[in-house]
Amino acid sequence: MRPHILVLSVATLSCVSACDLRPQSSHGFRLPDGDPDHGKQVFIEMQCASCHAVADDETLREGVEPEMTVIIGGMATRVDTYGELVTSVINPSHRIARSYRNEEFSEDGGSKMRNYNDVLTVTEMIDLVAFLQDQYTEFPDY
């Protein structure tokens, strides 16, 4: 196969797969903007600091007996998208970071993070994700 045909085929396939409009697709899904300050309160109220440390805010762990330490925020080569952060909260076993794969998991092999789907309101979820996104800084391109 000629190289330019192969490149064109791969590019076409990539475009087609990116435009997934099947009924199961998340295309068009977007929650409203959240309030990061309220999201911080949700983080505290839901006792997220018992397992999560926020990189630039050690005060969130004051008086907390940590069960484990999963760091949120700081400098990153790539910041999770809005959808990835929502998924991390509502389906924590969806993707477990390599650095935490050696930690103990729940009996079913998934994340130890409890399911918050029936605990958080939609507004709390939106605000929590806004707070989480604000914790990351992407390394600048040079």
Write a structural description:
The protein is an alpha/beta fold. The protein contains four helices and four strands; from the N terminus they run ααβββααβ. Strands 1-2 form a two-stranded parallel sheet.
Annotation, overall tally of beta strands:
4
Residues in helices, as a percent range? 25-40%
As a whole number of angstroms, the C-alpha radius of gyration is 19 Å
Question: Spans with pLDDT under 50 lasting ≥5 residues?
Answer: 6-11
Trace the largest sheet across and list its strands.
1-2
Question: Any descriptors?
Answer:
142 residues; alpha/beta; two-stranded parallel ribbon; two-stranded parallel sheet; 4 helices; 33% helix; globular
Write the layout of secondary structure elements.
Layout: H1 3-18, H2 36-45, E1 52-54, E2 70-72, E3 74-76, H3 82-90, H4 122-133, E4 136-138
Parallel strand pairs: 1-2, 3-4
Helix pairs in contact: 2-4, 3-4
